[in-house]
Automatic annotation (TrEMBL), chains A, B:
Cofactor (UniProt): Mg(2+)
Family classification: Belongs to the FPP/GGPP synthase family.
Stated name of the protein: Heptaprenyl diphosphate synthase
GO biological process, one term: isoprenoid biosynthetic process
Lineage: Bacteria, Bacillati, Bacillota, Bacilli, Lactobacillales
Length: 326, 326
């Protein structure tokens, strides 16, 4: 079994992620072989396992009692993440995920609904078998609720041409930063790291998550179909107006409105024109600057963590992950 | 606040169910007002609150520590039930639920996906705040997982004209009996009732759930649109071949196949012809006999419970609920 090449530089965490992946694969073994195989293929398709990785790294700032349970905990975070991806693909009607057909493209939306639901139960089940601490259960429930409230918020923002930067931030906080924040925090909390480290973990996770999502959103405007694992310009067509567009629109709203009014009917030529407009108003550069600000906040906070080897790994991984030129 | 008239005869349990409903309504209050209002209307639209009711009744066979937490527990079961209903309506593309438009008819399938997911998190959150017992959490996770594995099984049975009675039983066990069984068992377990009562509760819940689902499936073949809260013949058109049809088909498979091959294309006239065929081969009577067998098993087991007032209520409610002529 292997994990994403990102982890090759760090053999210890790589080994732990392989264990985590093993738990994930085992946890989805059910009577329904198609679903089991699809999910196992999906786990194999190169996800970076970032949420488990941050959890595992932060768990080293405290005391580790049982590795077995710790891997279950790490696996639960990725399973929760995949559950939301499977359901997001229904909403976005997305044909591709991680260079593979999405569950809904393979088996239809009906199966995709239940597969996501099934993954929520797997998450819950792993969690229940990974901790004796009711506070951990309760924090998970709260965090999961926040993610879903965020998803529902986001639905209200779709095709809203008046979306503000503040609303966008709130939306990506729920969509992405929440789970990054929680994964880091849960690692520190689970291992009973000092309270100050737990709070730092939260802040670091939040800033990583925000930077990560902004950069992901930038990619949708930057890339060509060939070098991306998902279709381009999908966000805009689906009515998710993200930071590069919002910042460019702040310069000249009227220029963009005729395009946005076409919603899903935007032609390839028109998309190119929008791309040029965004370039003209420096939407991408400005968004990159904001992402960099979040990245720098994360890195500065990581520097303040207690001096153990994992601190350096956290620093390095975060730098690589959020490197604009990567 | 009121609950279904079924409970008017039992003022104590009625009062407890009103408290439970209050917890449910509070638990779905979020920023997104449309979702909150839709769910609150849905809770108000006359569900019988059977799962919470059985939970509450069985909780009286042990020791009750906190009513507040007990109501949360009861509410969590109904929320879990509603979550599965919201997602089922996506699968079945169902326009109506409890005489109201379904969430997906109101807001589209995207919102319905996230609303169901949100309810799963509410369930999880209520649960985490209702018990200090990790075993309870773990049992819930297991039970929820079984329900979802059941839903996925069911998808494989759709439009399968070779479906056997045994497969049908397995399917309704996951779909319905599992949560009835669990609600009864959880009541007894939560209140630390004697182990024998806990086992009886399981058996009783299972038999009630099986009878209940068979009767619900019978209704789909029996009723006219007017007296039902949901469209008729929906199951067959959606490819869910239930007991009356399966039993009738066992008598003359060939007679039914030309109809079933039309799947969703079945005309009203053809549906009437299928109804007549089912009548001819006594599909409904035979299914009713099987339902009665499950009902009798439940009632016989209830009789063996320790002699407290709730035993009589359980007996009476179950009899009323599962009365064929009701």
């Amino acid at each position: 079994m292997t994990v994403h090449p990102l982890w090759e530089m760090y053999p210890t965490i790589q080994k732990e992620l392989i264990e985590t992946k093993r738990v994930m694969e085992k946890s989805v073994k059910i009577r329904n072989k198609e679903i089991t195989e699809t999910l196992q293929l999906f786990f194999d398709a190169g996800g970076k396992l970032l949420r488990p990785a941050y959890f595992l790294l932060f768990s080293k700032f405290g005391t580790i009692e049982s590795d077995k349970k710790r891997y279950r905990m790490a696996a639960s975070l990725e399973i929760l993440h995949v559950a939301t991806l499977v359901h997001d693909d229904i909403i976005d009607d997305s044909p591709v995920r991680r260079s593979m057909p999405s569950v809904q493209a393979l088996y239809g939306q009906d199966i995709a609904v239940y597969t996501g639901d099934f993954l929520f139960t797997v998450y819950f089940h792993l969690l229940a078998n990974a901790t004796n601490d009711l506070k951990t259960i309760s924090l998970n429930a709260q965090s999961m609720k926040r993610i879903l409230v965020g998803e529902l918020d986001q639905m209200n923002l779709r095709y809203n041409t008046n979306i503000t930067v503040k609303q966008y931030f709130q939306h990506i906080k729920g969509k992405t930063a929440q789970l990054f924040e929680f994964s880091c925090y849960e690692g520190a909390h689970y291992s009973h790291a000092p309270k100050t480290v737990q709070l730092q973990a939260k802040r670091i996770g939040y800033n990583i998550g925000m930077a990560f999502q902004i950069m992901d959103d930038i990619l949708d405007y930057k890339s060509t179909q060939e070098d991306m694992q998902k279709p381009v310009f999908e966000d805009m067509k689906n009515g998710y107006y993200t930071l590069p567009l919002i910042l460019a629109m702040n310069e000249n709203r009227e220029a963009f409105l005729p395009y946005l009014e076409k919603k899903t009917e935007l032609s390839n030529q028109e998309m190119k024109e929008v791309q040029q407009l965004i370039e003209k108003y420096k939407g991408i550069e400005k968004a990159e600057m904001i992402a960099e600000r979040f990245t720098n906040k994360a890195l500065t906070s990581i520097k303040k963590l207690p001096d153990i080897a994992e601190k350096d790994i956290l620093y390095h991984v975060t730098e690589v992950l959020l490197d604009r030129n990567n």
